Amino acid sequence: MILYLMAGLVLFLFFGTMFYAWVFGAPTVYTPYKAVVRMVSEVNLKNGQIVYDLGCGDGRILFEAVKKKNVLALGFEIFFPVFIWAKIKSYFRDKKGVAKINFGDFWYKDFHPANVIFCFLTPKSMRRVGEKFIGEAKKGACLVSYAFKVDGLPPQKVVRIKGLAPIYVYIKN
Ligand SMILES: C[S@@+](CC[C@H](N)C(=O)[O-])C[C@H]1O[C@@H](n2cnc3c(N)ncnc32)[C@H](O)[C@@H]1O
Question: Strand order in 98-103's β-sheet?
Answer without folding.
Answer: 98-103, 72-77, 50-54, 116-119, 142-146, 167-171, 157-159
